[in-house]
């Protein structure tokens, strides 16, 4: 038997005013049958109703949907209610049960993203607090624990999101196209879910073990470097020396504008596959991706330069593909919550923005540490003042020694580079030949040639 809740108790646990909850009960969205009050399942139901209403769906539409025979909405509300049903506690009660200071419990809630209205937590949150207390009692510094919790919470949120989104776009939408009834659709989704869900935790543990192996290897190299006297010891937690690289596509914005989001996403997927493959081979770690830009870190400069030049070579070999550009710098950075911070990161980022098509720009620090690399030459470009930086930076261009890359022409509209046999259309205007990857780009150019004049 599920414990009943008064309107005031449900209000405290959901953050919704009692009068609003009564409106939702009258609409048949929450509450026990025949006006018998509320129970713990209504906590989840009320949160879902709140979110759906904020999407712009009216209360009247929800009320009509739930009155339909075999209502899918009713089924979803019941599932959500069961998922979050069970005892709930105030944060003060939870802290007392586990033996935590209340302010510390609040910090753990913030780090783990366990936000509930009115400082409420449910029974599944209690083991989380217990685990945190064990780590702290074992001597783990609070600052370090908070970093771990924030990274875990963010990463698992992304994991859950990608599972949900891909299921919706690639399974749910396909099944809807088969003309199934709502009940058949739910049944098929549940069947697929029952097959896939048992695989999730083993997959997460598998990738975690793989990550631990690489992280342990990197940590060992860091210790060896310190013991050999090749790295300065620092009293600042998280400060290490790394080669930082920013790499992106030189003309991704005009490409997306000219070809649309779908085509741009296809190009980005190809680039992402290149970056991940090259980073793995060169012992780099992708820190983050924003659009077409990747930030990658390396323990030394040989691997960083090798990765940049490999990406240049791979992109140049791709048919109808934009040019790549990269910026690299070496120096001390601060590691925080899975990211790297500091002025040396900013230098690498500015170099990436400064680079032109097919350019890999590196600082003098990178060149000194990578000097002597077989098959690589460094061309001095002099000192430059980069945007946002007060001091001038000594810059070199890293190039693969040997034959020049194949000559390509550039589509003036989308920026795509075209090799022999890849040109779809040509135009001669004012004595200048233009090449295009498609008839669509040709038409855009003809309509407004001044827009694409270089």
Short description:
With 454 residues, the protein is of the alpha+beta class.
Textual characterization of the structure:
The protein is 52% helix and 19% strand. It is an alpha+beta fold and 454 residues long. Strands 5, 6, 7, 8, 9, 10, 11 and 12 form an 8-stranded mixed sheet that branches. It has a two-stranded antiparallel ribbon with strand order 1-2. The mean pLDDT is 88. It has 16 helices and 16 strands. The chain starts with a strand and ends in a 7-residue tail after the last helix.
Cα gyration radius (Å): 28 Å
- The total count of strands amounts to 16
Poorly predicted ranges: none
Query: Can you count the helices?
Result: 16
Overall structural class, as computed from helix and strand content, comes to alpha+beta
Features of the shown structure:
16 helices, alpha+beta, two-stranded antiparallel sheet, 16 strands, 454 residues, 8-stranded mixed sheet
